[in-house]
Design a protein that fits this description.
Chain A has 445 residues and is α/β, with parallel strands linked by helices. Chain A is built from 13 helices and 15 strands. Chain B has helices spanning 2-11, 14-33, 43-74, 81-98, 103-125, 135-156, 183-205, 207-217, 219-224, 229-255, 260-266, 271-276, 282-302, 306-309, 316-327, 349-369, 372-389, 391-397, 405-421, 438-460, 463-482, 520-542, 544-554, 556-561, 566-592, 606-615, 620-640, 645-660, 669-688, 694-700, and strands spanning 173-176, 179-182, 425-426, 429-430, 492-494, 499-500, 503-504, 509-511, 514-516, 594-596. In chain B, helix 17 (372-389) runs antiparallel to helix 25. The chains are: A alpha/beta (445), B mainly alpha (718). At the A-B interface, strand 3, helix 3, helix 8, helix 9 and helix 10 of A face helix 3, strand 2, helix 10, helix 11 and helix 13 of B.
């Protein structure tokens, strides 16, 4: 035995160290309640897995929804730096679904198998959402995969029971099988334009339905609703994303010859730039060049230059680009800009979708503890989110009832920068209920 | 005078006059019916029409001129013309925008230095080996080059950054009437004219130009007269690349944002201008460009196509291409294709059946072992193989090159969703329950008439021109058929899961204690159906019909002399091919659960032929290899090894490189591997066998000769 005497000291030290660390660990766990468990698919004792399916590599629209992935990753980093959620770190997997349904379906299946939820979903041309709606939880029940989307263009996703988009679509899902259906549209600052410039003759430019039928379908109710606020349509045109600038010459010519004084672009940024450049060349008489949140993008100013001066852009989130960023007025916006190095309109909504998830998880933890976090609990809680605004960063939205926000901020391109036009006070939004128009249209055949 | 009238009579036969009359009547019908009632025709409108028309004409003419120059001087139709222009436009962006060089310097370096070097390298490394290759190998090699350049551009200049080369003279413009024209468009128009004049003078008024054309007409004879064919061919590719660069740069100014695919495929619209010029006349190429440019301008300025036909505006260049192919005189069409036909060994039915059983066993193991996502990936590979199988009899054996299979897939997918959901409702009768497996077969039958319609141009067109006609057909099909409200209506159609005797093939099941998960059943069904149809295709090849196809491919004239009904044979092979493609489309729709028009765009069909030829266009196993190669490149590489940069490069550029590799081995991988194995076995046997006596060696010699099915054929591919 004497020859093993030398082992006594290390063994004693090891035992003391083990006992001490065990005591410390149990004290730490004890402070957070019972040990963390794998409470559902995508939740381990240490991590919460999130999937972001987004179309990135898209012909003609390079890096289309890259912002959605970077936005969710920025949110995850923000939360992890502040201790994580429900005692766990967030792990984000971004999947490029490109154009088409096959990769999107694979992404949904992967999300169902590995993640507790989809956040920032931004897919195009996906058709089959049964892997979201029929996704099974750890008990084998088909609770559905929680889906907090950013770009939700297909009716099947908009109205899926487990989908709660951060920027809900205009269709009232309870009427989707009726003819006509009911649409609730935020018409933005049309009333302001009419008040300022008088009656306006409108030209509406839609994306080509041959390239994305759902993208056009999402805009028809809004453009129709705007005509109830004092606009008279004189010209409308579907335009391909691959149209050359020469192809905009007759469009600009028609806008001029038809006497349009208001032109709204439902096109992407690159196409809007071509439209404005050609309109500048052809000397149209348009007083209001209007565009929604897709135009709140640094590329509009960078590529359009002087041609896009005066462009109005309304969006349901606080300004964050250029010198007029309102990060000082809103700490969540400051966090977004700190963690997202390539901020854009999709990114801020994806970050907000992440904050929505945070809000839901915190409510569940408060009610049921860290191990109460399940897909079912997430979906049940999401349905009760009726006034979410991501700490004032986005317009207050009834997520649970899938109703679009009535809020907006009007920006205008002046001297190569976006400047707030309405409301003027920083950190505020116009949320007048009259911004929303309800109408009946038969757009689903 | 009599001679001229006689010549005119020869050129304008009654059928052609009738066809021209019908086309003119159709054009008038469209103009009258879709005339925009709100449109006034005044001088301002006419100026606008002319300005837009001339600008578009110039871009199309420059792009087509490059094609014509390359074809006239090398005999190879370069599908990669747009991709070469695209990659050089990115090079111009790098010089001008990223590195800040002066415009003229960057332009000179791109058009006069980089473009000729690139063109010469392409000719020296790839195209020189293709001069005597079968036409399908030539086309596939240039399609491979296209895919490679698109992949290269996406790797070097990732698509997540917005790039633009701006415009010459920025916003400066001149006024004509009420229309303003920016200076860059004036420069585009002037460049178009200068390019055409300089090229024409070079090819017709200089010794080097005459020599370049002589090399194409008869390479050996030109060499005997002192010309240097290799050098001249290289020069012509250098010239063609410079034309591509000019077209790409002017196009990029008009497109705004640089896009690898946008720039590449825009040039396809210029094919019609080159065809109108019969791929040889530069002045007529200008006219061809004007036909496209002014047609587009007319539509944009004066017509209102309405909700139903508004997607049809993008089909205008392909409609012109299709019509041009039908009306261009036949003389030039197959004038120079003396290439070695692809000859492949035909397996016995027993051997084929063993192969399919082995495939089924492998797939069954995969279906049981893999997770659902991977099972779906294997399933997609199998469906792609099915689609490629449709090309084996058509292209591999009959020599009819088709880019329209993707359209047949789409029609099959539509028919499957339609007849699956409705329970085969025809004239009020329900032929089978909703979701019946019979809907797959109905879908295949529905596609056959469309296949026969595609066979009509094949009665008149062959080789390259038939390939282009099929591409035009596929391009037209999306806006004029798939986007119609009765078909996909610019949206998706959902199909019920199919089943038999109450079992749905996407449901999990167990056999012999082995559990198969969701979707595994459908994968096994697809594989079994592939085996059955594949065996049928092999049987077809071994029978009289198969021999007729080979004979028709090798020598249509000899076939006709021997009394073979070429017309009936072509209709039959197109019908069979379209039915198989329709069946594959139906499987696709069921596997996806839905289908929509964007799943069946013409350019998505290019990889089908590309990787089938890589696998082996004349063998059924080539379709299996091609299908899995395509799926491997598109999905598996990066899905199974995420984050490996080299694999991401390989994913983008691999299919293109594989296609380019066809220049080395036009028969494809499977036939070549098979041949290598046989050669090795023969050598091994020869080493083992005792050295025969001279008399017995002579006696065995005839038995060693290849069978007719194995023998390489040295005839045109037809």
């Amino acid at each position: 035995m004497r020859r093993f005497r030398w082992l006594i000291a290390p063994v004693v030290v090891t035992c003391i160290a083990t006992a001490t660390s065990g005591a410390v660990a149990s004290a730490h766990k004890g402070s957070a309640g019972p040990p963390l468990a794998a409470s559902d698919v995508g939740i381990t004792p240490t991590t919460i897995n999130i999937t972001v399916p987004a179309a990135i590599d898209v012909p003609g629209s390079a890096g289309l929804f890259q912002g959605s992935i970077t936005g969710v990753k920025a949110w995850a980093q923000f939360e992890n730096d502040h201790g994580g959620l429900a005692g766990r770190k967030i792990n984000v997997t971004g999947i490029d679904t490109k154009l088409g349904s096959d990769l999107a379906t694979s992404a949904f299946i992967q999300g169902c198998n590995n993640s507790v939820a989809l956040i920032g979903t931004s897919v195009l041309l996906a058709q089959n959402f049964t892997d979201i709606t029929g996704c099974k939880d750890h008990t084998g029940a088909a609770t559905g995969l929680p889906d907090f989307g950013v770009v939700v263009t297909e009716v099947a996703e908009q109205c899926a029971p487990s989908s709660y988009a951060i920027n809900p679509a205009v269709l009232d899902c309870t009427t989707k099988d009726q003819h006509p259906q009911t649409y609730t549209s935020n018409v933005g600052p049309v009333a302001y334009y009419v008040k300022k410039f008088g009656k306006l003759k409108a030209a509406f430019l839609y994306p080509s339905p041959a390239e994305s039928a759902s993208a056009k379908a999402a805009q028809v109710p809004i453009f129709t609703a705007e005509q109830t606020k004092g606009l008279t349509q004189v010209f409308t045109q579907d335009v391909s994303a691959l149209a050359t600038r020469s192809e905009y010459t007759p469009i600009a010519g028609a806008i001029a010859s038809d006497g349009a004084t208001y032109a709204k672009s439902g096109l992407d940024v690159a196409s809007t730039v071509k439209l404005r450049q050609e309109a500048q060349t052809q000397n149209t008489n348009v007083k209001v060049w209007d565009c929604s949140l897709q135009c709140y993008d640094s590329r509009l100013i960078g590529e359009g230059g002087p041609a896009v001066e005066g462009q109005y852009v309304y969006a349901p989130f606080l300004p964050f680009l250029g010198k007029n960023s309102e990060a000082k007025q809103n700490k969540m916006l400051a966090a977004f800009l700190k963690y997202d190095k390539q901020p854009d309109g999709f990114g801020i909504q994806a970050f907000a979708a992440g904050l929505l998830f945070t809000d839901i998880v915190n409510k569940i933890v408060a009610k049921s503890g860290n191990n109460g976090l399940t897909r079912k609990a997430i979906l049940d809680t999401a349905a009760t989110e009726h006034a979410f605004n991501a700490g004032g960063m986005i317009g207050t939205t009834d997520i649970g009832n899938r109703k679009p926000t009535p809020c907006w901020i009007l920006n205008q391109v002046k001297n190569g920068d976006y400047q707030r036009v309405l409301p003027l006070a920083k950190g505020t939004m116009n949320c007048d209920p009259s911004n929303v128009v309800t109408e009946k249209l038969d757009l689903i055949k | 005078m009599a001679a001229i009238i006689d010549r005119m009579n020869t050129r304008l036969s009654w059928p052609r006059l009738l066809a021209i009359g019908a086309t003119a009547a159709l054009a008038i019908f469209v103009a009258v019916n879709f005339w925009n009632p709100n449109q006034t025709v005044d001088s301002d409108k006419i100026v606008l029409f002319l300005v837009v028309g001339v600008t578009l004409s110039a871009i199309y003419a420059i792009a087509a001129a490059g094609l014509v120059v390359t074809y006239t001087t090398s005999g190879i139709f370069n599908f990669a013309q747009g991709a070469i222009g695209m990659i050089l436009t990115y090079a111009y962006w790098q010089l001008r925008v990223a590195w800040g060089l002066q415009t003229l310097l960057a332009l000179g370096l791109t058009v006069l230095v980089a473009a000729p070097i690139l063109g010469a390298l392409i000719e020296r490394i790839f195209m020189r080996r293709l001069v005597r290759a079968p036409l399908v190998a030539q086309l596939v090699a240039t399609v491979g080059l296209l895919a490679f350049f698109v992949g290269l551009a996406d790797t070097v200049w990732p698509s997540d950054t917005y790039r633009s080369i701006g415009q010459f003279y920025g916003t400066d413009k001149i006024q004509i009437g009420a229309t303003f024209i920016p200076w860059y468009r004036i420069i585009t128009i002037i460049a178009g004219v200068i390019v055409a004049v300089v090229l024409w003078a070079l090819l017709h008024r200089t010794r080097i130009g005459v020599a370049m054309r002589a090399v194409v007409d008869n390479r050996e004879l030109a060499a005997l007269n002192g010309a240097r064919p290799g050098l001249l061919s290289m020069l012509s590719w250098a010239l063609g690349s410079s034309m591509a660069a000019i077209a790409g740069i002017f196009l990029a100014m008009d497109l705004g944002q640089l896009s690898s695919q946008g720039l590449t495929f825009f040039i396809v619209d210029a094919f019609a201008a080159a065809i109108i010029a019969k791929l040889r006349s530069l002045p007529v190429t200008l006219i061809g460009g004007a036909v496209i440019g002014f047609s587009l301008s007319f539509q944009r300025n004066f017509l209102d196509l309405g909700q139903r036909w508004s997607p049809g505006q993008v089909a205008i260049p392909s409609i012109i291409l299709f019509l041009a192919l039908l009306f261009v005189p036949q003389a030039r069409i197959e004038g120079r294709r003396i290439g070695r036909a692809i000859a492949a060994r035909v397996p016995s039915l027993k051997r084929a059946a063993i192969g399919f059983v082995a495939l089924f066993i492998v797939v069954t193991i995969l279906a049981a072992a893999l997770g659902r996502v991977d099972v779906r990936r294997v399933e997609t590979g199998m469906i792609l193989a099915f689609a490629m199988l449709s090309l084996v009899p058509l292209t591999g054996w009959a020599g009819q090159i088709s880019f329209a299979q993707i359209t047949f897939l789409g029609i099959g997918a539509w028919a499957a969703t339609e007849f699956s959901n409705s329970g085969g409702a025809v004239f009020g009768l329900h032929l089978y329950p909703t979701g019946s497996v019979l809907s797959l077969f109905v879908a295949a039958i529905v596609v056959v008439p469309i296949g026969l319609l595609m066979a009509l141009p094949s009665l008149r067109l062959q080789g390259l021109y038939l390939a282009l006609a099929s591409m035009a057909f596929a391009l037209m099909a999306v806006p004029l058929f798939f986007d119609q409200p009765e078909v996909f209506a610019s949206s998706s159609r959902y199909g019920a899961p199919i089943g038999i005797f109450g079992y749905h093939f996407n449901e999990p099941f167990s056999v012999l204690g082995i559990n198969f998960g969701t979707d595994a059943g459908f994968l096994l069904l697809t594989t079994a159906l592939f085996g059955i149809v594949g065996t049928g295709v092999v049987a077809l090849r071994r029978g009289a019909f198969g021999r007729r196809l080979i004979a028709m491919r090798d020598s249509p004239a000899a076939c006709a002399t021997l009394g073979v009904n070429l017309r009936a044979t072509k209709f039959a092979v197109f019908g069979i091919s379209s039915a198989i493609a329709g069946f594959a489309g139906a499987l696709f729709a069921v596997a996806q659960g839905s289908a929509q028009a964007t799943d069946f765009l013409a350019f998505q069909g290019l990889p089908l032929l590309l990787l089938l030829v890589v696998g082996g266009v004349a063998v059924v196993s080539g379709a299996v290899l091609g299908g899995f190669l395509l799926q491997g490149f598109q999905v598996w590489l990066t899905a199974w090894f995420p984050g490996v940069t080299v694999l991401e490069w390989w994913q983008r550029m691999g299919p293109g490189l594989a296609g380019i590799g066809i220049a080395q081995q036009p028969d494809g991988i499977i036939p070549q591997v098979g041949q290598d194995v046989r050669d090795r076995r023969q050598r091994s046997q020869a080493r083992r066998a005792p050295e025969p006596a001279p008399a017995s060696a002579a006696a065995t010699r005839p038995a060693a000769a290849p069978s007719p099915a194995q023998a390489p054929v040295a005839k045109p591919t037809g």
